[in-house]
Design goal:
This protein is α+β, with helices and mostly antiparallel strands and 84 residues long. It contains 3 helices and 4 strands. The longest helix has 15 residues. The radius of gyration is 12 Å and the shape is globular.
Length: 84
């Protein structure tokens, strides 16, 4: 499962949105969870982050355990999403 944790109003998250949308258009399923206003999603972030990033955007591939902290370019994001 691919998960993107983001915060509403986060400028870094907003810059990543077009890249996430591009991956989704290519058929890659990514669950996007807002954490600043949703306490349950914030708890999920804390459970998966475990001190790795400490903020958003945070991307985790629960199958490969690969993660990305903060902004990334498209190639890095796609590599995270595809496990390559």
């Amino acid at each position: 499962m691919l998960i993107e944790f983001y915060g509403n109003g986060c400028p870094h998250c907003e810059r990543m949105r077009p890249l996430i949308d591009r991956l989704k258009q290519e058929g890659i399923e990514i669950e996007s969870l807002e954490v600043w206003q949703n306490e349950e999603n914030g708890q999920k972030l804390a459970e998966l982050d475990k001190g790795l990033c400490g903020g958003v955007p945070f991307f985790v591939n629960t199958e490969t355990k690969a993660f990305l902290c903060g902004e990334a370019d498209y190639e890095d994001l796609k590599g995270w999403a595809t496990g390559k």
